[in-house]
Write a structure and sequence with these properties.
about 290 residues; alpha/beta; Arc Repressor Mutant, subunit A; D-Maltodextrin-Binding Protein, domain 2; 3 domains; eight-stranded mixed beta sheet; two-stranded antiparallel sheet; about 25% strand; elongated; LysR_subst-bd; DNA-binding; LysR_HTH_N; transcription
Length: about 290
């Protein structure tokens, strides 16, 4: 009995069709059928019966199914353990990130990490900070890159600080200047980030320190959406400084006050991390070390 036979058996059991199973696991249908026939010969009993709709498990197949699953799971667990002992992390890593990191910083991190850890597949999920924290709580992601305000159940490692700047439409009176005070924006209609975005609270705190509450005209989730609304004349905004702003018809003003937002790598403090997650965290820490 071979492992590939068990994999083929589970595929046919899941899809209830030799054709669909063959398509899913990318083998020819004759090869799949031969492997199942050999498995049935080794076991001395039929595992499937053909029906008008496809195939279904026989009583012997039903009895064999949980053992086949357990056998493959044990082999996979053993492979992960060997890889861990050998210092070669393998597996799938689920990473969540705020939208602004999807085009800067994190792509380089992921590319470099996967080059040095070819056995790791990284799956990304982009969302505002609040959604990412919910995904962490639900176990849907292993690590999040976000801007949490209060998260005592998380371990947080600051990975970068981004300068915040003001942006205004090109025909705005402030567009004649290179910099301004945050208080110069008081009374202006604001294009704000959605409330579930961690940066919204950072900007509101800076505005409060400058003596005003932003008058929100419209909200956006992504940096480019916010900047696009400013370009359309909806209002002004405070956003992280990045090169993509040069691609839009907005005027960038450096703020006289030192306004920054910190981005953190976060994971549950009391969750047992997989070897892949531990390897990734250590890698990011080394990259971001001063």
């Amino acid at each position: 009995m071979e492992l590939v036979q068990l994999e083929y058996f589970l595929a046919v059991a899941e899809y209830q069709s030799f054709r669909r199973a063959a398509d899913a696991i990318r083998v020819s249908q004759p090869a799949l059928s031969r492997a199942i026939q050999k498995l049935e010969g080794d076991l001395g009993a039929p595992l499937f019966v053909r029906t008008a709709q496809g195939v279904r498990l026989t009583p012997c197949g039903e009895a064999f199914l949980p053992h086949a699953r357990q056998a493959l799971a044990e082999v996979a667990a053993g492979a992960r353990k060997v890889a861990e002992l050998a210092g070669q992390a393998r597996g799938v890593l689920h990473v969540g990130l705020i939208y602004s990191l999807g085009t800067r910083f994190l792509p380089d991190v992921i590319r470099t990490f996967t080059r040095t850890h070819p056995g790791v597949t990284v799956r990304l999920s982009e969302a505002p900070t609040q959604k990412l924290l919910q995904q962490l709580d639900a176990g849907e992601i292993d690590i999040a890159f976000c801007t949490p305000q209060h998260a005592p159940h998380l371990t947080l490692v600051e990975i970068l600080q981004e300068e915040l700047v003001a942006i205004v439409p090109l025909d705005h009176p402030l567009a004649a200047k290179d910099q301004c005070h945050l208080s110069d924006l008081a009374g202006e209609p604001f294009v704000a980030y959605a409330r579930e975005s961690g940066i919204r609270h950072v900007i509101e705190r800076y505005c409060a320190e400058a003596g005003f509450t932003p008058r929100v005209a419209m909200e956006g989730v992504e940096d480019l959406t916010v900047a696009g609304l400013v370009a359309a004349g909806v209002g002004v905004a405070v956003v992280p400084l990045h090169a993509q702003l040069d691609q839009l018809p907005v005027h960038v003003l450096r703020l006289c006050e030192p306004c920054k937002r910190s981005v953190y790598m976060a994971w549950h403090t009391h969750t047992t991390l997989s070897p892949v997650a531990r390897a990734f965290i250590a890698f990011v820490k080394r990259m971001c070390a001063p």
